[in-house]
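Why do we care about 3D structure at all? Because function follows from shape, and shape follows, mostly, from sequence. That is the central idea of this module. The next example makes it concrete: a single protein chain, its amino acid sequence, and then its structure expressed as C-alpha coordinates.
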Amino acid sequence: MNSFINKIHQAHLDCSDCPSPKVIHGFFEELLGLLFPEHALSKIKEKSEIEDKINKLQHTLSDVLKRNVHLHKGDGEALAKSFFEGLEKVYTWIQQDVDAIYEGDPAAKSRNEILRSYPGFYAISAYRIAHSLHSLGISLIPRMISELAHSKTGIEIHPGAKIGQHFCIDHGTGVVIGETTVIGNHVKIYQGVTLGALSVNKEDADIKRHPTIEDHVVIYSGATILGGKTVIGENSTVGGNVWLTKSVPSGSKVYYQTQMYHSGSEVTDMYVFKNDNDEAI
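And the structure:
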Protein backbone atom coordinates (compact mmCIF):
# COMPACT_ATOMS: atom_id res chain seq x y z
CA MET A 1 0.00 0.00 0.00
CA ASN A 2 2.85 2.37 0.86
CA SER A 3 4.36 1.78 -2.56
CA PHE A 4 1.05 2.69 -4.21
CA ILE A 5 0.72 5.86 -2.10
CA ASN A 6 4.28 6.82 -2.98
CA LYS A 7 3.51 6.45 -6.70
CA ILE A 8 0.42 8.63 -6.43
CA HIS A 9 2.30 11.17 -4.30
CA GLN A 10 5.10 11.39 -6.89
CA ALA A 11 2.54 11.81 -9.68
CA HIS A 12 1.02 14.76 -7.84
CA LEU A 13 4.44 16.28 -7.24
CA ASP A 14 5.35 15.91 -10.91
CA CYS A 15 2.02 17.41 -12.00
CA SER A 16 1.58 20.05 -9.31
CA ASP A 17 1.31 22.96 -11.78
CA CYS A 18 -0.20 21.16 -14.76
CA PRO A 19 -3.29 23.00 -16.00
CA SER A 20 -6.39 21.10 -14.94
CA PRO A 21 -8.86 20.28 -17.73
CA LYS A 22 -11.50 22.03 -15.62
CA VAL A 23 -9.43 25.23 -15.60
CA ILE A 24 -8.82 25.17 -19.35
CA HIS A 25 -12.39 24.19 -20.18
CA GLY A 26 -13.67 26.94 -17.89
CA PHE A 27 -11.36 29.45 -19.60
CA PHE A 28 -12.70 28.47 -23.04
CA GLU A 29 -16.36 28.49 -21.99
CA GLU A 30 -16.00 31.90 -20.35
CA LEU A 31 -14.21 33.27 -23.42
CA LEU A 32 -16.89 31.86 -25.74
CA GLY A 33 -19.58 33.44 -23.54
CA LEU A 34 -17.75 36.76 -23.71
CA LEU A 35 -17.61 36.67 -27.53
CA PHE A 36 -21.10 35.29 -27.98
CA PRO A 37 -23.75 36.26 -25.38
CA GLU A 38 -25.77 33.22 -26.48
CA HIS A 39 -23.21 31.18 -24.50
CA ALA A 40 -22.91 33.53 -21.52
CA LEU A 41 -24.28 32.57 -18.12
CA SER A 42 -25.16 36.20 -17.41
CA LYS A 43 -25.72 39.23 -19.60
CA ILE A 44 -23.15 42.00 -19.79
CA LYS A 45 -24.78 45.41 -19.46
CA GLU A 46 -21.86 47.81 -19.22
CA LYS A 47 -18.97 48.18 -21.68
CA SER A 48 -16.59 48.32 -18.74
CA GLU A 49 -17.59 44.75 -17.84
CA ILE A 50 -16.22 43.55 -21.18
CA GLU A 51 -12.85 45.12 -20.53
CA ASP A 52 -12.86 43.66 -17.02
CA LYS A 53 -13.62 40.18 -18.33
CA ILE A 54 -10.92 40.39 -20.99
CA ASN A 55 -8.40 41.45 -18.36
CA LYS A 56 -9.51 38.65 -16.08
CA LEU A 57 -9.24 36.01 -18.81
CA GLN A 58 -5.87 37.35 -19.93
CA HIS A 59 -4.65 37.15 -16.34
CA THR A 60 -5.93 33.55 -16.09
CA LEU A 61 -4.12 32.51 -19.27
CA SER A 62 -0.98 34.38 -18.26
CA ASP A 63 -0.96 32.72 -14.85
CA VAL A 64 -1.34 29.24 -16.38
CA LEU A 65 1.45 29.88 -18.88
CA LYS A 66 3.82 31.34 -16.29
CA ARG A 67 3.36 28.30 -14.07
CA ASN A 68 3.81 25.90 -16.99
CA VAL A 69 6.86 27.05 -18.93
CA HIS A 70 7.20 23.56 -20.42
CA LEU A 71 4.12 24.32 -22.56
CA HIS A 72 5.82 27.08 -24.56
CA LYS A 73 9.16 28.68 -25.34
CA GLY A 74 8.25 32.32 -24.70
CA ASP A 75 7.19 34.63 -21.93
CA GLY A 76 3.83 33.57 -20.49
CA GLU A 77 2.56 37.08 -19.88
CA ALA A 78 3.61 38.25 -23.37
CA LEU A 79 2.01 35.20 -25.01
CA ALA A 80 -1.28 35.83 -23.20
CA LYS A 81 -1.17 39.47 -24.31
CA SER A 82 -0.51 38.42 -27.92
CA PHE A 83 -3.42 35.99 -27.85
CA PHE A 84 -5.89 38.65 -26.71
CA GLU A 85 -4.49 41.19 -29.18
CA GLY A 86 -5.39 38.71 -31.94
CA LEU A 87 -8.83 37.91 -30.53
CA GLU A 88 -10.68 40.38 -32.75
CA LYS A 89 -9.46 38.55 -35.87
CA VAL A 90 -10.55 35.22 -34.37
CA TYR A 91 -13.96 36.72 -33.64
CA THR A 92 -14.29 38.03 -37.20
CA TRP A 93 -13.42 34.65 -38.69
CA ILE A 94 -15.93 32.84 -36.45
CA GLN A 95 -18.60 35.31 -37.57
CA GLN A 96 -17.75 34.43 -41.18
CA ASP A 97 -18.07 30.74 -40.31
CA VAL A 98 -21.53 31.42 -38.89
CA ASP A 99 -22.42 33.14 -42.18
CA ALA A 100 -21.17 30.09 -44.09
CA ILE A 101 -23.25 27.71 -41.96
CA TYR A 102 -26.34 29.89 -42.34
CA GLU A 103 -25.93 30.19 -46.12
CA GLY A 104 -25.10 26.49 -46.49
CA ASP A 105 -27.91 24.96 -44.44
CA PRO A 106 -31.49 25.51 -45.69
CA ALA A 107 -32.74 24.25 -42.31
CA ALA A 108 -31.08 27.13 -40.44
CA LYS A 109 -33.75 29.73 -39.76
CA SER A 110 -31.51 32.31 -38.12
CA ARG A 111 -27.97 33.03 -37.03
CA ASN A 112 -29.24 32.90 -33.46
CA GLU A 113 -30.29 29.27 -33.99
CA ILE A 114 -26.79 28.42 -35.21
CA LEU A 115 -25.09 30.19 -32.31
CA ARG A 116 -27.24 28.46 -29.72
CA SER A 117 -27.64 24.97 -31.09
CA TYR A 118 -25.30 24.00 -33.93
CA PRO A 119 -22.42 21.61 -33.08
CA GLY A 120 -20.56 22.90 -36.13
CA PHE A 121 -20.48 26.40 -34.65
CA TYR A 122 -19.23 25.15 -31.29
CA ALA A 123 -16.52 22.94 -32.80
CA ILE A 124 -15.28 25.57 -35.27
CA SER A 125 -15.22 28.25 -32.55
CA ALA A 126 -13.16 25.97 -30.32
CA TYR A 127 -10.85 25.26 -33.25
CA ARG A 128 -10.35 28.98 -34.08
CA ILE A 129 -9.44 29.77 -30.46
CA ALA A 130 -7.28 26.66 -30.06
CA HIS A 131 -5.50 27.31 -33.37
CA SER A 132 -4.71 30.87 -32.29
CA LEU A 133 -3.03 29.52 -29.14
CA HIS A 134 -1.29 26.78 -31.14
CA SER A 135 0.08 29.38 -33.57
CA LEU A 136 1.78 31.13 -30.64
CA GLY A 137 3.73 27.95 -29.93
CA ILE A 138 1.62 26.93 -26.93
CA SER A 139 1.15 23.17 -26.57
CA LEU A 140 -1.39 21.00 -24.74
CA ILE A 141 -3.86 23.80 -23.89
CA PRO A 142 -5.12 24.06 -27.52
CA ARG A 143 -5.55 20.29 -27.61
CA MET A 144 -7.53 20.34 -24.36
CA ILE A 145 -9.89 22.92 -25.87
CA SER A 146 -10.35 21.01 -29.12
CA GLU A 147 -10.97 17.76 -27.24
CA LEU A 148 -13.63 19.46 -25.13
CA ALA A 149 -15.40 20.36 -28.38
CA HIS A 150 -14.83 16.80 -29.61
CA SER A 151 -16.47 15.36 -26.50
CA LYS A 152 -19.49 17.65 -26.86
CA THR A 153 -20.03 17.54 -30.62
CA GLY A 154 -18.34 14.43 -31.99
CA ILE A 155 -16.30 16.72 -34.24
CA GLU A 156 -12.52 16.37 -33.91
CA ILE A 157 -10.41 19.19 -35.35
CA HIS A 158 -6.74 19.22 -34.44
CA PRO A 159 -5.63 22.76 -33.53
CA GLY A 160 -2.63 22.42 -35.84
CA ALA A 161 -4.83 22.16 -38.94
CA LYS A 162 -4.96 25.25 -41.15
CA ILE A 163 -8.50 26.21 -42.14
CA GLY A 164 -9.45 29.18 -44.31
CA GLN A 165 -12.35 31.59 -44.04
CA HIS A 166 -16.08 30.82 -44.41
CA PHE A 167 -15.78 27.22 -43.20
CA CYS A 168 -18.96 25.21 -42.82
CA ILE A 169 -19.53 21.88 -41.07
CA ASP A 170 -23.10 20.65 -41.48
CA HIS A 171 -24.46 18.16 -38.92
CA GLY A 172 -20.92 17.36 -37.92
CA THR A 173 -20.90 14.16 -35.90
CA GLY A 174 -17.96 11.96 -36.79
CA VAL A 175 -15.91 14.61 -38.62
CA VAL A 176 -12.15 14.16 -38.16
CA ILE A 177 -9.64 16.77 -39.38
CA GLY A 178 -6.01 15.83 -38.79
CA GLU A 179 -3.10 17.90 -37.57
CA THR A 180 -1.46 18.80 -40.89
CA THR A 181 -4.63 19.23 -42.93
CA VAL A 182 -4.84 22.40 -45.01
CA ILE A 183 -8.32 23.66 -45.96
CA GLY A 184 -8.95 26.65 -48.20
CA ASN A 185 -11.74 29.22 -48.16
CA HIS A 186 -15.46 28.49 -48.60
CA VAL A 187 -15.19 24.76 -47.92
CA LYS A 188 -18.19 22.76 -46.71
CA ILE A 189 -18.07 19.30 -45.20
CA TYR A 190 -20.75 16.99 -43.84
CA GLN A 191 -20.92 14.47 -41.03
CA GLY A 192 -18.57 11.51 -40.96
CA VAL A 193 -15.89 13.06 -43.17
CA THR A 194 -12.31 12.04 -42.36
CA LEU A 195 -9.35 14.11 -43.51
CA GLY A 196 -6.70 11.77 -42.23
CA ALA A 197 -3.25 10.26 -42.61
CA LEU A 198 -2.13 7.09 -44.28
CA SER A 199 -0.31 4.77 -41.94
CA VAL A 200 2.99 6.44 -40.98
CA ASN A 201 5.74 5.85 -38.48
CA LYS A 202 6.03 7.86 -35.26
CA GLU A 203 9.22 9.49 -36.55
CA ASP A 204 7.23 10.91 -39.48
CA ALA A 205 5.14 13.05 -37.11
CA ASP A 206 6.68 16.29 -38.40
CA ILE A 207 5.90 15.70 -42.08
CA LYS A 208 2.63 16.66 -43.78
CA ARG A 209 0.44 13.59 -43.29
CA HIS A 210 -3.03 14.89 -44.05
CA PRO A 211 -4.67 16.16 -47.26
CA THR A 212 -5.03 19.61 -48.75
CA ILE A 213 -8.53 20.79 -49.63
CA GLU A 214 -8.56 23.81 -51.92
CA ASP A 215 -11.15 26.61 -52.11
CA HIS A 216 -14.87 26.04 -52.76
CA VAL A 217 -14.83 22.26 -52.21
CA VAL A 218 -17.83 20.31 -50.91
CA ILE A 219 -17.26 16.93 -49.24
CA TYR A 220 -20.33 14.85 -48.50
CA SER A 221 -20.98 12.52 -45.59
CA GLY A 222 -18.79 9.54 -44.90
CA ALA A 223 -16.06 10.50 -47.37
CA THR A 224 -12.50 9.59 -46.38
CA ILE A 225 -9.56 11.50 -47.86
CA LEU A 226 -6.10 10.39 -46.75
CA GLY A 227 -2.47 11.31 -47.23
CA GLY A 228 -0.25 14.37 -47.07
CA LYS A 229 0.24 14.49 -50.84
CA THR A 230 -3.46 14.24 -51.63
CA VAL A 231 -4.90 17.48 -52.99
CA ILE A 232 -8.57 18.08 -53.77
CA GLY A 233 -8.58 20.80 -56.43
CA GLU A 234 -10.71 23.90 -56.06
CA ASN A 235 -14.40 23.83 -56.97
CA SER A 236 -14.51 20.04 -56.62
CA THR A 237 -17.24 17.87 -55.12
CA VAL A 238 -16.50 14.63 -53.29
CA GLY A 239 -19.55 12.44 -52.89
CA GLY A 240 -20.65 10.43 -49.88
CA ASN A 241 -18.60 7.38 -48.83
CA VAL A 242 -15.85 8.06 -51.35
CA TRP A 243 -12.39 6.80 -50.32
CA LEU A 244 -9.56 8.89 -51.82
CA THR A 245 -5.81 8.50 -51.43
CA LYS A 246 -4.78 10.40 -54.56
CA SER A 247 -5.29 13.93 -55.82
CA VAL A 248 -8.07 15.13 -58.09
CA PRO A 249 -7.78 18.28 -60.23
CA SER A 250 -9.90 21.41 -59.95
CA GLY A 251 -13.52 21.11 -60.97
CA SER A 252 -13.75 17.37 -60.29
CA LYS A 253 -16.79 15.44 -59.16
CA VAL A 254 -16.15 12.09 -57.50
CA TYR A 255 -19.02 9.79 -56.61
CA TYR A 256 -19.31 6.33 -55.14
CA GLN A 257 -21.84 4.15 -56.95
CA THR A 258 -23.08 0.88 -55.51
CA GLN A 259 -24.30 -2.04 -57.61
CA MET A 260 -27.09 -4.54 -57.01
CA TYR A 261 -25.58 -8.00 -56.54
CA HIS A 262 -27.00 -11.31 -57.67
CA SER A 263 -25.56 -14.80 -57.98
CA GLY A 264 -23.24 -15.26 -60.92
CA SER A 265 -22.68 -11.56 -61.43
CA GLU A 266 -19.17 -10.15 -61.47
CA VAL A 267 -20.23 -6.51 -61.12
CA THR A 268 -18.67 -4.56 -58.26
CA ASP A 269 -19.09 -1.18 -56.63
CA MET A 270 -17.29 1.57 -58.49
CA TYR A 271 -16.28 5.19 -58.34
CA VAL A 272 -17.40 7.74 -60.93
CA PHE A 273 -15.00 10.56 -61.82
CA LYS A 274 -16.10 13.61 -63.77
CA ASN A 275 -14.22 16.80 -64.42
CA ASP A 276 -15.57 20.12 -65.63
CA ASN A 277 -12.24 20.78 -67.35
CA ASP A 278 -12.33 17.44 -69.20
CA GLU A 279 -9.08 16.37 -67.61
CA ALA A 280 -8.28 12.69 -67.26
CA ILE A 281 -8.18 11.50 -63.66
